[in-house]
From TrEMBL:
GO cellular component terms, A-Z: membrane
GO molecular-function terms, A-Z: alpha-L-arabinofuranosidase activity; calcium ion binding; hydrolase activity, acting on ester bonds
InterPro entries the record matches: A-L-arabinofuranosidase_B_cat, Cadherin-like_sf, Ig-like_fold, SGNH_hydro, SGNH_hydro_sf
The name this protein goes by in its record: Uncharacterized protein
Residue ranges annotated for the SGNH hydrolase-type esterase domain, each copy included: 382-567
Domain Alpha-L-arabinofuranosidase B catalytic: 129-193
GO biological process, one term: arabinan metabolic process
Pfam families (UniProt xref): ArabFuran-catal, He_PIG, Lipase_GDSL_2
Spans traversing the lipid bilayer: none
Amino acid sequence: MTRLVSGGRSGGVGNRTRTVSGSGALFALPRALGSGSSFSLRSGSNANLALAGTSIAAASALAAGASQVALVRESVGTGAAARAVEYAVTLTGATAAPTPTPTPTPTPTPGTYLPANAALAGAYGLGLLVSAYAGPALRLRRASDGAELDIGFSGQALDIAAASAFQGASPLTVAAVYDQTGNGRHLTQPTASAQPSLWLGEGGPIITNYDTDSPMLIPATLAIPRADCAVFMAARTPGQAATCGYWAFGAGATDYGLTSPRSAGNLAMQPMVAGASIPATATNARALGVNNLAVLGLVSNAAKQVVHRDEQTADYPAAAAAMLNTGGEVGEAIEYGGRTDWRGFVVYAAAPTDSEVTAIKAALKTVFSTAEPATLSFLAGGDSIVFGTGGANNRTITAALHHRSAAGVLYRNIGIAGHRLELGYTGFNTASAAYLTPGVPNVYVSDYGHNDIKTNVTDAPSALTAVAAMKGQARHMAAKLRAYGFDMVIWQEAYADVTFTADQEAARDAWNAWLRSGPLAEDGLPCFDAVDTVASDAAFILSDAETDAGRGMAQGSNSSDGVHPNEVHAGTRADHLRAAYAAIPFALKYVPVAGQQGLPYTGYTPRVVKGTAPYAFTLAPGSAALPAGLALDAGTGVISGTPASAGTRSGIVLRAADSLGATAEAAFAISVAAAATITVADQTESWNAADATGITVAMPGVVNAGDVLVAIMTVDAVPAVTWDNATAGAWTQRAQYVSNSNAHTLMVFTRTADGTEGGRVLNVALSGSQQAVTRVLRVTGATGAVEMGSYLRSAATSADPPAITPSWTGASLDIAVLALDGTAAVSSGPAGYSGFMTRASSASGQSTNASAWKIASGAEDPGAFTLSASGQWVAATIALQAS
């Protein structure tokens, strides 16, 4: 098995097996420790094998069926930073493909088949793809006694009855998948230990490769040109977060292939050309997640490569010309936790036309039943219990869920081995469009907690601080998930493991108790729609050896390492999770929003859980009426309007009825604050018509202590400004924005008045001799909190300040401001704004200052100032919080 000598986990490097032919370089070694690592062979390696650069080479060809082992060590770094991994590579000499058992030529079965195409080079699968084919589908091997048997078709489908009868109670592996073109280019795997499994249970039949190097081998006789070919599969990577390979041509290195890389969260597909994976981006394969059975394709021609997932496509640059004639592999899990399932594989030696591609995909959808529409989507995040690493016999919960659910239920997995809540919520501060499925309910399943406790709890005091931190992180994460678009959040209780200390076990108990207590998230809603209590369910016995039903897993029957679930336990845990989801009731979630008298009000958009759209919203019988001025939208459930009076209206009960007649209700109160008294009580203007370095600014005649003074200054250049504090007192500069080409400056200063400013004339110095205009607004009813929005600059005749969204709730005084260079006049301010004033410093229009204001709440987009002609300008918006 893989052994990490130092430096942490091995990163999923496992023992490798290859069936090879010939001598020389036979296997290219993958780098697990980065580009700077080096390879060596350890003592005990077969004498016929040696390193040739980064490949294993054989001095002489291996006999058919004979195996030779190379013991590989990869190392990097020195001293305390040294890391190394050790693993075995087993090379086995190739044997001839098995000869299919002759079968009588049947009458062609009615159905949908691949369209006729002279370039069809190979057709393989668990369904009949070529109407004229009369042979078997595949050869199976029974693990109990090594017996082998060819299995054919029943109609157009695999003969499940024959396969089940041959299986008995023993697992089945696949020795060969026969070529239905009649060319004899069969996919084989002569090494019994490397054969993939045939799954006949829930979600089957399917050829499955999990966590091991067990692909079917492509024969060298299946030769195609890389720059003019096409490969299609009916396949999936069911709920995995590890790198999985769909197919690859090439001996050792990948000359051409299609993968689902771990770096893309296993929510993307990427072609590989000459051993290099082409990165997925937001505009190509990032959105082509493959977690449920789908028709995948890679069509290559002289112009480009096109990746297909059902009807989705993504373009990549054209591949360099090369002949692919050294064999390859179909279906491979490249890392621990990886899984590739497939039902069909079709190869063309020339790129089909667009219409032919459509017909090929339609046939594969029909034969392999991949066309079911999505009805429900799950995304699982967390640590290695979700990710699926930890041992060769372990399995992810999402993979187990796949085998227990309808084909239209999607499962994605973005778990990361070793991940913790404190490490950033698996990327949800920078979310990916691939995480959500449009048009269906989206459910996030979280399994965080184990590693936070394992890492941060060392004694009783640290148990308290660690759990407190986890609570805050979970509250944040739950709100982020809903804001991003998830309809439901399910959290699974944390498991212990066999190494937990008493303090860690106490922290786990406290964490799980908090999960079950119904805590609220940062958005005011309950954190979770359901908590999967599998770790504390007294009826859920992990094994006969366990005396504490909530403490971890027994090594052996439920886990190969005492931490991560194996096939048995993952299936049982998946059943428990499905039950937790099924128990979520139809519900209406609502967070009341406070309003203010006289200001426009828009309430919360209700969240409906588990209903069947469309919904109708009403006030339930016995509900209190809405505050005067507000009304309910029956289609959206949003309450809006302008409250006519202040006060709190309790006892409001909103009801949602779904299309099937089910109803859910939410009770709440709406509080309306008294009308805001914030206003601009006075404005003064000061300007100098000639250039000067010293200017004066007049204050309003009456200024009371607590008033907020806002000075809007425009200057025909970019000078430094110095207020004479002896006459002016201290002012806070809020912004300095410059129009294009440094032609003009807009500056904003504020000061909370002490009551001595009334009628005074203040001295202000400029670093250069310029014309300037300064307008001072006296604002009453303000708290003193001031925020500036961003700015916009242009030469257009419509000067539109950008929108501003204050950080506070409630009323604001929003001031739109403009600085204009040139002789153009400002004819009007933003529509709906009061107090519009404009002033040019001189007849030549060296500096023009304009402003207007409005009382509003929340986000505000002022609209434009109108100019008589074009000129360089800069505009912005100021918000002052109402008391």
